[in-house]
Design goal:
The structure is a single chain. By secondary structure, this protein is α/β, with parallel strands linked by helices. It has a nine-stranded mixed β-sheet with strand order 8-7-9-10-6-11-12-13-14. A seven-stranded mixed β-sheet has the order 17-18-16-15-19-22-23. A three-stranded antiparallel β-sheet has the order 2-1-3, with no helix packed on it. Strand 17, helix 7 and strand 18 form a beta-alpha-beta unit. The N and C termini lie far apart (67 Å). 42% of the residues are buried. Bound molecules: thymidine-5'-diphosphate (TYD) and magnesium ion. Thymidine-5'-diphosphate (TYD) binds next to helix 2 and helix 3.
Length: 454
């Protein structure tokens, strides 16, 4: 076997010397693919003897000009970008096929173009006619966006050099190929080489490049994971297929806060921004029902209210089901264990289903108490007090821990017409926003207070 042959996991990007069925780093099966890597150039010469130029160093206090930013005018997008699109930057937008990445980027491209930027949209997946058809459907055919249908990276770079645009959208990075790497488009080495070329080009010429990357569960195509560390900003476009809500989430951003979300709605005429996500996520809620709890969460820098639903039913199987949508399965197991051992609420022999309504995915530990409340409420077949929101982190001892931004959560709840909050002890001086605060110190106390003595 040649020495420089290596294998890369398409799920997590880890490099391996040998092929194995399972990636040691992330545990995914069948995701390792051969990776010829970039050419290392001439081997023997080190950097040692030849002299370079000395670099000018600066200190931290000197004020360098901040990179200029451009706003698209779509609030949800600008916030996720950290306050507009930054010059000389590379972005990656990942997401499942068919989730709406091309739609989002065509709309964004049109916005930026109307704002005065020179924008090129390169599609490697669709013909010009197909992109034009989508533009007509979105009512954007008059926008001054330049189109091209091309996959050869050298030709694309040459074109960009000649036209000196401000923004280039590459849809998608998996379809691009560079003639310096002799493997198929979409392979790890091609994707990495193309992303590297585009990123370097963006930095050198002071333009913004947005790349689309598909994420596939099978890992047959190199996932965007291998380029995440190269780019400045990584955004994921998520959503449940059956729902019209789409969430743009920043997982890495060198120019703004990470974990910020933008909420959109997929309509017949493209993506519309959702100004008040809490109202949207709660819109399908009926009267208070057992197993349904409103969680006051924080996504990035702003509060978002959503509904957590649980269903508990006797299991016909020897090993009961634990099924979760929109939350972490391991965290659910932990909450069940704490309920069982600290609060005397057993779930043995019961199937448990947990769902975050609206296709939102919650990662905050502050949702612990809301999940526990939904589970106990479903099990006891008793609804929570009307118009109340719940939040708080649960520790393994069953104690409730205070969470960040309590006041913001309460304010949002008050704005949407809630009257009480079930939560951990808040620090002294916390403004209650006019809500009736029901503070509890531990989970057992909460269960007793809300569902009666056991
Ligand atoms: P698309 O942007 O092509 O997805 P991706 O680039 O991520 O693969 O969008 C795919 C879906 O979006 C498609 O199933 C149709 C739907 N859609 C609408 O519902 N409304 C619209 O206005 C558009 C353009 C697409
Ligand atoms: Mg597409």
């Amino acid at each position: 076997m040649p020495k420089d042959l290596a294998y890369t996991c398409t799920a997590c990007g880890a490099a391996h010397a040998k092929w194995t069925g399972r990636c040691d780093a992330c545990g995914a099966w069948n995701t390792l693919v051969e990776d010829k890597g970039l050419s290392h150039g001439p081997k023997k010469q080190g950097l040692g003897k030849a002299r370079g130029t000395a670099i000018t160093l600066t200190d931290l206090a000197t004020q360098e000009a901040e990179p200029p930013r451009t706003l698209s005018g779509v609030n949800e997008l600008d916030r996720v970008l950290g306050g507009g699109l930054t010059r000389a930057s590379a972005l990656l937008v990942g997401g499942d096929p068919g989730i709406g990445k091309s739609t989002l980027l065509l709309q964004a491209a049109a916005r930026f173009a109307r704002g005065g930027l020179k924008v090129i949209y390169v599609s490697g997946e669709e013909s010009n006619a197909q992109v034009q058809m989508r533009a007509r459907r979105l009512g954007l055919e008059k926008s001054p966006v330049q189109l091209a249908s091309e996959t050869n990276l050298r030709d694309i770079l040459t074109t960009m050099d000649g036209l000196s645009p401000d923004l280039v959208v590459i849809d998608s990075i998996q379809t691009m190929w560079s003639d310096t790497v002799d493997s198929a488009p979409g392979s790890v080495s091609q994707v990495r080489a193309c992303a590297h070329e585009l990123t370097t080009f963006a930095k050198r010429n002071g333009i913004s490049v947005i790349m689309v990357g598909h994420v596939t569960k099978e890992g047959a195509i190199a996932g965007p994971r291998v380029v995440e560390h190269m780019v400045d900003t990584v955004l994921y476009f998520e959503g449940e297929r059956g729902h019209q809500f789409r969430i743009l989430r920043s997982v890495k951003n060198r120019f703004g806060p990470a974990d910020e979300i933008g909420v959109f709605e997929m309509t017949g005429r493209g993506l519309a921004e959702v100004k008040n996500p809490s109202a949207l996520f709660l819109s399908e809620r009926g009267d208070p029902a057992p197993g349904s709890v409103v969680f006051a969460g924080i996504e990035g820098t702003r509060p978002v209210l959503c509904e957590i639903q649980a269903l508990v039913a006797p299991s016909p199987h020897s090993q009961p089901r634990r099924s979760v949508v929109g939350w972490d399965g391991g965290r659910l197991a932990m909450i069940l264990a704490v309920l069982e051992s600290r609060c005397d609420v057993p779930f043995t022999g019961l199937d448990v289903y947990l769902n975050v309504a609206g296709g939102l995915r919650i990662t905050e530990p502050a949702a612990d108490l809301a999940v526990a409340a939904a589970l106990v409420s479903a099990r006891e077949d008793a609804a929570l007090p009307k118009e109340s929101v719940v939040f708080g982190e649960i520790s393994l001892s069953g104690a409730l821990r205070p969470v960040i931004q309590t006041e913001n959560r309460l304010k949002e709840a008050q704005k949407l017409g809630f009257t009480s909050a079930i939560m951990p002890r808040a620090p002294k001086g916390t403004q209650g926003a006019g809500l009736d605060l029901r503070e509890t110190q531990d989970l057992a106390g909460f269960v007793e207070q809300v569902f009666g003595a056991r």
